[in-house]
Amino acid sequence: MVLNTALSFVLAAFALLAPHRDPALYRRATIFYGSALGLLAALVLAEHIFHVDLGVDWTRLHAWLPDSNRNPGRMSAATAAAFLMTGAALILATRAHNRWMGTAVRVLTLLVGAIGVLGLIGHIVQAELLFPQYWFAPLALHTAGGFVLLCIALWLRWQRFDWGRQAHFARDDDRIAFVGAIVLVATALGAAIGTFAVVQGRVERLVREELLNSVSRRTALMPELIQIGETTARIAATRPAAIRNVRAIHAGRDDGSNIANVKAVVQSFLEQGVRGIVYYDVDGKVVARGGALATTPAITVALATPGKAELLWDQGFLLRHRLPLQDAAGRAGDVLLEQPLPMLAQLMERPSGRTESWESGLCLRREGELVCFPTRFTKKVFSTPLLNSAGERLPMTRAVSGETGTIITADYRSQSVVAAYGPVGDLGLGMVLKMDAAEIFQPIREQLQLALGVLFVIVAGGTVLLRSRVRPLATKLVDAEKRYRTLTDAATDAIVSADSRGTIVYFNPAAEQIFGYAAKELAGEPLTILMPASYRSAHERGFARFLATGKGEALGKTLELAARRKDGSEFPIEISLSAWSAAGEQFFTAILRDITSRKEAAEALRRLNEELESRVAQRTAELRAALEEMGRSERHYRMLFDANPHPMWVYDPEALNFLAANNAAAQHYGYTREEFLRISLDDIRPPEDRAGVHTLVRQLGGGASHRGIYRHVKKDGAVIDVEVISDGIEFAGRKARLVLAHDITDRKRAEDEIRRLNAHLEERVRQRTAELEAVNRELEAFSYSVSHDLRAPLRHIGGFAQLLGEESSSALNESAKRYLSIIIDSVTQMGRLIDDLLSFSRMGRAEMHHDRVSMSALVAEVRQQLAKETDGRNIAWDIGPLPEVEGDRSMLRQVWVNLISNALKYSRPREQAQIGIACAEKNGELEFYVRDNGAGFDMEYAGKLFGVFQRLHRADEFEGTGVGLANVQRIISRHGGRTRAQGKVNEGATFYFTLPRPQRSGS
Amino acid sequence: MTQLRAILLVEDSAKDVELALAALKKNNFANPVVVASDGVEALDYLYGRGKFASPPASLPIVILLDLKLPKKDGLEVLKEIKTDARLKLIPVVMLTSSREEADLVKSYSLGVNAYVVKPVGFQQFMEAIRQTGNFWAVINETAPLAGAPGG
Lengths: 1003, 151
Hints:
The complex is a heterodimer.
Chain A: H1 3-17, H2 23-50, H3 59-62, H4 77-95, H5 99-125, H6 127-130, H7 141-159, H8 162-165, H9 172-238, H10 240-251, H11 257-272, E1 276-281, E2 286-291, E3 299-302, E4 310-313, E5 317-327, E6 330-340, H12 342-348, E7 359-366, E8 369-372, E9 382-384, H13 395-400, E10 405-410, E11 416-424, E12 429-436, H14 437-440, H15 442-490, E13 494-499, E14 504-507, H16 509-515, H17 519-522, H18 533-549, E15 558-564, E16 570-582, E17 585-594, H19 596-643, E18 648-651, E19 658-661, H20 663-669, H21 673-678, H22 690-700, E20 706-713, E21 719-731, E22 734-743, H23 745-807, H24 814-845, E23 851-854, H25 855-865, H26 867-870, E24 875-879, E25 884-887, H27 889-906, E26 913-922, E27 925-932, H28 964-974, E28 979-984, E29 988-996
Parallel strand pairs in A: 24-26
Antiparallel strand pairs in A: 1-2, 1-6, 3-4, 4-5, 5-6, 7-8, 7-12, 8-9, 10-11, 11-12, 13-14, 13-17, 15-16, 16-17, 18-19, 18-22, 20-21, 21-22, 23-25, 26-27, 27-29, 28-29
Helix pairs in contact in A: 1-2, 1-4, 1-7, 2-4, 4-5, 5-7, 9-12, 9-15, 10-11, 23-24, 24-28, 25-27, 27-28
Chain B: E1 7-10, H1 14-26, E2 33-36, H2 39-47, E3 62-65, H3 74-83, E4 92-96, H4 101-110, E5 114-117, H5 122-139
Parallel strand pairs in B: 1-2, 1-3, 3-4, 4-5
Helix pairs in contact in B: 1-5, 2-3, 3-4
């Protein structure tokens, strides 16, 4: 495990330990750790992907660790990916609020676990050998295990959240199938892995053994081969003929046969297989050579043999010896031999039947590194470091160090190989035989793949089978459950289930509504929460008894009890209990309903019934009384009918015959009762009217009431006028008409007389009116000419008097002037008199208009009109509200003019004139008054006030004609009112007049 | 037209005429006053017939007309004046002692321009004459009278 990995696990641990009670803190902590984790992992992943060193690997720290990591300190890509996913899951988890995001988080978590599991598997089956590209191989065992733990921890963490708890599978059968599939997979996988692990181990062992044997054989054989070669060299070095000849040649004594002999020797060696041979004389001069010597061997290895052999490579193994030619006489020279070692080449060759990756290697240690002979894969001499990329010693290194053994490691090609190594004798060489692990385990891999394929098929098939078997079952179950659920959820009765501890386990929606709790609130609560306090002890006793004895009195029956709502209110319930067991546990279910309304209804019904009873009794009594009453009224009726002074009868509207008649009818028409009942309507009508009767009766249709005046005929033939009032009645079970007859003969006669008289009267009235109108016209003409003609001389008198005064003012003395002014005043007086008389007479004659007159408006107008007389005077007006009256506007105006100007006139001597005008209702009439604080009058002479030309003051005291008040009286009496006056000398006067209240309301 | 137009006074009572003239004089009306003693004379004057040789050079500025006249009474004269195309433009003021409603209605319906009741008191009469004359002879704008030469 690398430091970053450890660090990341620590971060993850902190994230898991974040306090979840405080959501805000939890969120922040989780996000922090998740982000740190993710960031680190992302960086390392980037390093892997882009092959750059970002410096997060703590390389220096890891330098002293013997780690087979190519990039020391760097987390494997898989680890980084797993941590990245962890970080992402943590961060997402804080934001997850719906199922989609929850699923994402859980998928990430599962992936982390998957990585861990794969890592573990990899370790178990040494998957890197099977699959060289096994990505999860670099996962350390504890890292993989750590991921699995992390996955589990995270998964448990997500259970705390709603979205983590949501059921993946809505249906049990899906869950069963899924679980089944998991089980299958786990089992099969486990079995497969186990088997393969075992097989793989065995295979490995076998391979190792074989390789080791091979190596041992070869390493044993090689020295022998060398030895053989050396022997040959020794022979070459000790061939007497050769030596002799060489010596001879060297001595110069060669006659050609020596050289030939030497050449023959050379030749013979060449024929033996020696590649090259050179005989040197003792001076080092070449005597004879044959073959070819390696000029530039790729490598020369000194073998520690007695002959100081050298192993060369020059397109093949060559064994070189340079030995002195030595015999008893001494050294004659040297011989240089190079002989191939085909056997060695053969040894180093891939044996037949072996696979592709088989390689043999022969190397030695030189100058701190390995120098190797060409191999199958490397066709030339090469050198390689002593340690492989993981820092471990190569197999060859071990071999040249004298160790023998097998190892699975990365070779100089950085491939995983199974290698057997061993030193080659004492030659200082090492030999390695190796095969790529991938190749060795190829068959296993293929088998594994096959097995996985089969496994997949089995799992898939098994799942499908399971589903097809389980689904119908599950469907049935689900449907049944659904039905049950629907029943209970939709039930209008409350259904409550509890377990053997008395804790509520089910609370249906109807119960929620009735009790006012939400089902969630009551999970885990005891049943007693739903009962009134008074019931609880009884319940507990019964409950305990049932659990103990299995017998419950309350079970299986319908009881009326009381329950308690969330708000504490109690209400009556009808409840039935049952007990049942499932999975070894005891459950109880209560079905109850709120019978408050029922009880109330029952109570109401009872009350209603009582009321009904009393009412019935009452009604019966009433009925009895009514019947008695009816009997009495029947008698009354009979009396009324019979004793009625007016003729009354009942006739049948179809046949027109009389069904009943009273005495008056019979008498009046001159029949006896019996006779009357035998005749019909036709008989009492004049013949010419009979058709009309039929039509009328038909029109009336029997039911309508009718009133009319007809002529009837008495028995003696006398025709009378009768007013008939008839109506439809039911008589003796059939439709009939009741008739009351009024003999109006006399009345009619009287009416006719009156009409005649009226007409006559109207004629007389017309005549009289015409006469009156004529008289009026005469008077009119009279007053017209009077006014006109009388005024003219007056004008002249006055006018000329004035002119005279002006003309002769110088000539006149004071008394003359005085006389003149008297004349002028008299003229004026007379003029006024004439005007007043004229208006007085006009008032009497004039046609009265009937208008709605506003008295207050009128008074205001009159005041305006008399403004000349009020100017400059101190007058206090006290005018009250005045109503409207009906009358002649101009006449009433005259009344006000007269009264107010009188008030003004007679109050002139006062410093302040006080004039009051008001109206009061008296005896249904309106009484107006005008009051002043003027001169007043003596009540003794009140009667004379309203007379024409009557004055109670002297003309020089107060001017006036004495007509005004007479006018007022005349007008008021024409309006149907009365006048009166009240006064006291020097204390003012009040003049009253009444008018009737206006009849109409509204205009 | 610098010449003052005349006031035509139609009144049968000589005394009333005298009073009226005195009142006009006292009020310093410079207009000449033409007096006709009955309706016929008034019309003859206006039309220039009878004892009048020709119609006046300029028509009167206002006619003061009494109701009660012999031969043709005031209403008849009024009617004739107000129906003549030329004469109806002259303002006519009823100057009479009658305040009868019937007279008022008839006069106004015939188109009289004003109706003044002769007060009994002379002072008031003077005042009435002054105001009437002042208004109708001085203040009021008369209609331009066509037909009379030099008018």
